[in-house]
């Protein structure tokens, strides 16, 4: 895995972005999706993922649905209306951040 | 290989319960996560017995899982504080404070200062103890699951109650004088209103959990 500290600051945005592309997702599914998309470069630990999910839920950006799957209960997360709007803002902030970093680190590409 | 069977899921559930993950809302999610990880390991070709795989997984990941539990409780407390303040400072909450104040002020006209003061400080404590006792009996009698936010909801009340008692003892010396009575009545009105607000929030949270976890007993 690369520098996890650099990714950590964007964890909420990553979660919101993934949920905006799926109707609903559960914790383990999110970790696997991120792992697959980044080809194993970014591995979200449960110690980071679930607190982030619970915080987003407490802020009203995510809604929760519980379903019985494979002999156990599974907690699914999905975006609320506020969450959908916040995703757009967060992605725009992240794009600006990437652009700024690009101009600092590699001005030719900016 | 398909999913883990009921006994294996129950084993994970019991293990986490014994590891101090006592609240069902967080444990449910952890059980699913651990089960999914173990299923993945088995699907990737590990042919060992479930219990060996589980043991190895826990040696590597237990601390991270328990760290998640601690953070979850912090978020639950924050959620309660937010709901409590929202409820207390809503129009209904402010009317509740005013009604308690008016009733206590009227009652004050009929009792001696000392009796009234003792009574005022005893009432919230007695109600709080009864509330706690009923909750404790209900949990055992009906074998109810424990939910984090519902159970931790009385914490703010304990802090508020002790804060006011501390203020009273520090600044008002403990002797009863008429000039202090308005302060004491206001204090008790706020404490009783906080209790009403906590009761409203408890019902709201319990209903939410009931709706969300209606299948919990099948685990």
Automatic annotation (TrEMBL), chain A:
Instruction: Tell me the InterPro entries matching this sequence.
Output: Metal_resp_DNA-bind_regulator, Tscrpt_reg_PadR_N, WH-like_DNA-bd_sf, WH_DNA-bd_sf
**Where's the Transcription regulator PadR N-terminal domain?**
15-86
One Pfam match: PadR
Name of the molecule in the record: PadR family transcriptional regulator
Automatic annotation (TrEMBL), chain B:
Which keywords does the record carry? Membrane, Transmembrane, Transmembrane helix
Question: What name does UniProt use for this protein?
Answer: Uncharacterized protein
The superkingdom listed in its UniProt entry is Bacteria
Q: Which residues cross the membrane?
A: 88-107, 119-138, 150-169, 181-203
């Amino acid at each position: 895995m690369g520098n996890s500290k650099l990714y950590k600051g964007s964890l909420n945005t990553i979660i919101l972005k993934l949920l905006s592309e799926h109707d609903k997702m559960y914790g383990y599914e999110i970790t696997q999706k991120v792992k697959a998309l980044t080809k194993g470069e970014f591995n979200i630990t449960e110690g980071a993922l679930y607190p982030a999910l619970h915080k987003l839920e407490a802020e009203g950006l995510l809604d929760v649905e519980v379903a019985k799957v494979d002999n156990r209960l599974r907690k699914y997360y999905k975006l609320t209306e506020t969450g959908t709007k916040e995703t757009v803002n967060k992605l725009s902030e992240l794009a600006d951040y990437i652009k700024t970093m690009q101009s600092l680190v590699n001005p030719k590409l900016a | 290989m398909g999913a883990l069977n009921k006994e294996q899921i129950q084993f994970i559930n019991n293990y986490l319960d014994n590891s101090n993950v006592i609240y069902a809302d967080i444990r449910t999610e952890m059980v699913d996560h651990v089960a999914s990880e173990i299923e993945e390991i088995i699907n990737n070709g590990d042919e060992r017995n479930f219990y060996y795989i589980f043991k190895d997984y826990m040696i590597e990941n237990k601390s991270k899982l328990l760290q998640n539990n601690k953070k979850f409780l912090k978020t639950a407390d924050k959620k309660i504080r937010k709901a409590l303040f929202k409820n207390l400072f809503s129009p209904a909450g402010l009317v509740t404070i005013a009604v308690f104040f008016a009733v206590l002020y009227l009652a004050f006209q009929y009792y001696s200062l000392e009796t009234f003061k003792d009574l005022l400080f005893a009432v919230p404590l007695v109600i709080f103890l009864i509330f706690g006792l009923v909750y404790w009996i209900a949990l055992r009698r009906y074998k109810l699951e424990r939910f984090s936010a519902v159970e931790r909801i009385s914490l703010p009340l304990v802090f508020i109650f002790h804060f006011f008692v501390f203020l009273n003892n520090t600044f008002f010396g403990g002797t009863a004088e008429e000039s202090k009575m308005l302060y004491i009545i206001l204090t008790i009105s706020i404490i009783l209103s906080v209790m009403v607000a906590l009761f409203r929030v408890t019902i709201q949270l319990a209903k939410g959990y009931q709706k969300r976890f209606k299948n919990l007993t099948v685990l």
